[in-house]
Specification:
Strand content of chain A: 5-15%
Order of helices and strands of chain B: EEEEH
Helix content of chain B: 10-25%
Oligomer: heterodimer
Shape of chain A: elongated
Number of helices of chain A: 33
Number of strands of chain A: 22
Largest interface: A-B, 36 and 37 residues
Strand order of the largest sheet of chain A: 3-2-1-4-7
Radius of gyration of chain B: 13 Å
Largest sheet of chain A: 5 strands, parallel
Distance between the termini of chain A: 50 Å
């Protein structure tokens, strides 16, 4: 991933953008933060947040024109938050703490601010904070300007005086009773000071040589610079006076003056000064109306209790659309903007611990995040690329995907792989491709579907048994994937490039993406269009089910439609899950999440199966098996089509990993024998070793990803070489063997009468024991 | 992995081929281009080594993970 690409991805995640209120506020008060603190009953903490950007909360809390309220996401659900009254109570209740000494070193260049109204005072405070000696010129004998024109019942004099005092205490030199153009000219100021800010009501000062436009002093809207170097002026705003906008102008001028005096660019990187429209998206669906909390006494403003109630109406705007629907994104405690940075760092690291390895490998690659993201950011794609890079760099943890790669290798070996024309034909218009996991999970249904297709379609239908390569693509092993695809192409070509009938939607996705030249059709679309075997009882009304669409059908509306049509014709009513079709969720098998993060995968399953109490119907063997394994009644569409008693299939636990191999191998042998009338050639020697494995050991083997064939190989090796440990009191043997990258240990004992072996335990490690004969 | 791994007290394993009891000895284990000397029980004659389950699934698995993420 390049830096530029990273920034592009980061930019698409909008979670960190300001909420609409803060963006619309000319000085960007953190309204959301303030609301959060008030709702917790802590006005002092809220005041601290407000004061970070707003110098006069007591005044503004009483007179603000509140542009924030126009854009509040609560606006149409009970009314925008009462922002200013809440600021006011913070100011009234929160203890005033004088600003700390300026953090910036005291600077030598002097600044004059002309005009002691809200704008001028804000400029003074900002410039003092930046370390400049500031002299404030005010035409009247006191600070505050037009604030004194506001009636005392709105802005009590005590509040006004207290907040004006803040300016005096900040260390500004006051020159009161001095009108610009009378006792002092702009030229005088330019002589005495290094920069000047004119914060005056229009017409109150002689322009003194400043260039005009439309009868007023012309200023650059971005910097508020006038035609004279070092002289900045508040722009004339249309419409009624906005105190908060005057403060915002002053802040802009203070930034300009600082840049001017530091001799740095006046314009570079000046984003979001003044009001702007945020990019933050907040989903307000499901947010019910909640009316504004009234004040018992308007004159006093909110009581603390009332304020807490009002602040609790705040939606706390944020996006997190993807995190809300994805257990994986939620699990790692952050959001994509942070995640893409972590992925980038993980890929760039030269020495040290790669902390995001598991994160990268735990994504199911289902792309639901992209579907719900306002900017189509796809963490699945980020993780796909990252895995490919890790493999290329030689940094993919060897153990993560090996089990799945070996499974794929098995499916594409002579044990399972097959490509043939329909018996008695030399040509194929179609070829049925059931995929590896349906063959592993329900081999008998593969037989039935193939028989059904041959029977019902007036066409020659061949058969290809193998794995499409998806596990390698998920693992970032593009070398293995490409070779699987090339092997498929060869078989497919040899059959004359027939149209491929796909039962598995993951295969479908892989074909669409990587084999676009191959004509494919989903088995479900075919069944829907061409009719399907309707059992006599199937027209009865059978009740309501929910459909779990496999995540790889996310963009396949026609497949989803066909499945619903079939269910309808079978007599089922459908109650859609909250997340279905293009927003469906992964069952945790996708992307090999289950190998990288087993507990997260379980959580993903738990979440999905809890979404409805109804039985689920799905059309992916892995989805079905994973849900059923955790106790959810789940049927495969083929159960409904081909089983006499589908209900009894709903709780069927899927086969274990060893059984999956066995089922595939047997399916091939059975089809070759029964469909083509041939015998399959011999099997591996070690396959002949009979094992007696108690249920608890079988469960341990599943958990530890140890297959029956691994055990058979260890015993074959130990018995062949005699290299084994013996435990005379128990009669057990313990031996190890390393056929590939994993060392398997098996504790076993021979069964009586040479009838195979009893297995007592099995475990493995990846470290290599370097035995040396020299002791 | 450089420290001595404590073997479980219970040790009834003999080398089946040599018919003699296992004894502690230095063995090298390696993974991803990293090699460590460890003390494990092994046959003093033919060198057949025993990696107990607790070590395979405990310390060894930990080191494997650390090396893979390095």
């Amino acid at each position: 991933m390049e830096q530029k690409e990273l920034r592009g991805l980061e930019d698409r995640c909008i979670q960190e953008y300001a909420p609409p209120c803060t963006a619309a506020c000319p000085i960007h008060v953190d309204v959301r933060g303030m609301m959060s603190e008030i709702s917790r009953g802590d006005p002092e903490a809220a005041l601290k947040i407000v004061r970070k950007t707003l110098p006069f909360p007591g005044i503004i809390g009483r007179i603000c024109d509140q542009p924030c309220r126009d854009v509040c996401n609560r606006k149409n659900s009970g009314g925008s938050l009462a922002v200013a009254p809440l600021e006011r109570i913070c100011a009234d209740l929160g203890a005033y703490q004088p600003e700390k000494k300026p953090a910036m070193p005291r600077k030598s260049r002097k600044v004059a601010v002309v005009g002691g109204g809200l704008g001028g005072l804000t400029a003074v405070l900002d410039l003092v904070k930046k370390g400049y000696p500031v002299v404030l010129f005010e035409a009247r004998v006191r600070l505050g300007g037009r604030l004194w024109d506001i009636p005392g019942e709105i802005l009590p004099r005590t509040v006004l005086k207290a907040e004006l005092d803040v300016v005096v205490q900040a260390g500004v030199e006051l020159r009161l009773n001095i009108t610009l153009g009378e006792r002092v000219s702009l030229a005088d100021l330019r002589g005495e000071f290094d920069a000047v800010y004119l914060s005056l009501e229009v017409g109150c000062y002689k322009t003194d040589g400043l260039e005009l436009g439309d009868g007023r002093v012309r200023v650059d809207p971005a910097t508020l610079a006038t035609s004279q170097p070092g002289v900045f002026a508040a722009p004339l705003r249309e419409g009624s006076y906005s105190p908060i906008l005057a403060m915002s102008d002053a802040r802009r001028a203070a930034i300009s003056i600082d840049r001017y005096l530091q001799k740095v660019s006046m314009t570079a990187a000046r984003y979001n000064e003044g009001p702007y429209v945020t990019r933050l998206y907040t989903n307000t669906a499901g947010i019910g109306p909640l009316g504004i909390v009234p004040m018992a006494e308007r004159r006093v403003g909110y009581s603390l209790d009332e304020a807490v109630q009002e602040a609790r109406r705040c939606i706390q705007c944020q996006c997190l659309e993807c995190v809300k629907v994805c257990a994986y994104l939620e699990h790692y405690g952050s959001y994509p903007k942070k995640y893409v940075r972590e992925v980038y760092n993980n890929l760039s690291i030269v020495m040290g611990h790669r902390q995001a390895n598991q994160f990268i490998n735990s994504c199911s690659r289902c792309s639901l995040c992209r579907e719900v993201c306002p900017n189509d950011l796809d963490m699945g794609e980020v993780c796909r690329q990252a895995r490919v890079t890790m493999v290329d760099q030689g940094r993919m943890p060897a153990s993560t995907h090996e089990f799945a790669m070996r499974d794929m290798q098995f499916s594409n070996s002579e044990e399972f792989a097959l490509g043939r024309h329909q018996p008695g034909t030399t040509d194929s218009e179609y070829v049925f491709f059931p995929g590896c996991q349906l063959s592993a999970s329900a081999p008998e249904q593969v037989e039935r579907v193939y028989a059904q297709l041959r029977e019902s379609m007036d066409a020659q239908i061949g058969l290809i048994l193998r794995c499409c390569g998806a596990p390698a693509e998920w693992a970032g092993r593009m070398d293995l994937f490409e070779s699987a695809v090339a092997d498929f192409r060869r078989v497919h070509q040899a059959l004359g490039n027939p149209q491929v009938i796909l039962a598995c939607s993951t295969c479908y996705r892989m074909f669409q993406t990587y084999l676009p030249e191959v004509e494919v059709v989903s088995l479900w679309v075919l069944f829907d269009q061409q009719g399907f075997p309707v059992r006599e009882t199937s027209l009865d009304k059978k009740g309501v089910v929910s459909i779990h669409d496999p995540c790889t059908t996310r963009c396949e509306r026609s497949i989803q439609d066909s499945v619903r049509q079939i269910l309808d014709r079978l007599g089922y009513q459908i109650e859609e899950l909250p997340l279905s079709r293009e927003k469906t969720e992964c069952c945790s098998y996708g992307g090999l999440m289950w190998l990288a993060n087993r507990s997260l995968a379980n959580e993903v399953v738990q979440r999905r199966i809890a979404e409805s109490p109804l039985d689920y119907v799905t059309y992916c063997a892995m989805c079905r098996d994973l849900f059923a394994a955790q106790g959810k009644h789940t049927l495969h569409l083929l159960d409904l089509l081909f089983e006499a008693d589908p209900k009894s299939r709903a709780m069927r636990a899927g086969p274990g990993y060893s059984q999956r191999h066995e089922n595939r191998a047997r399916l091939k042998r059975k089809l070759i024998k029964e469909v083509w009338g041939e015998e399959m050639p011999g099997i591996q020697d070690y396959d002949k070793i009979t094992l007696n494995i108690p249920a608890d050991v079988q469960a341990r083997m599943e958990e530890r990803l140890i297959l029956v064939e691994d055990i058979q190989q260890v015993i074959a090796h130990a018995e062949g070489t005699g290299r084994k440990l013996a435990n005379p009191p128990t009669g057990h043997f313990l031996a190890y063997h390393r056929p590939g990258n994993v060392t398997y240990w098996v504790e076993y004992s021979p069964m009586p009468k040479g009838d195979g072996f009893a297995i007592h335990n099995a475990y493995s490690h990846r470290m290599l024991i370097e035995e040396s004969k020299k002791l | 992995m450089t420290e001595t791994i404590n073997q479980p007290e219970r040790n009834n394993w003999l080398c089946a081929a040599c018919g003699i009891a296992l004894e502690p000895g230095k063995v090298t284990v390696s993974y991803l281009d990293n090699a460590y000397p460890v003390e494990l029980l092994r046959c003093p004659r033919c060198g057949l080594t025993w990696v107990p389950e607790e070590i395979a699934l405990g310390k060894m698995a930990e080191v494997e993970k650390t090396l893979e993420d390095k």
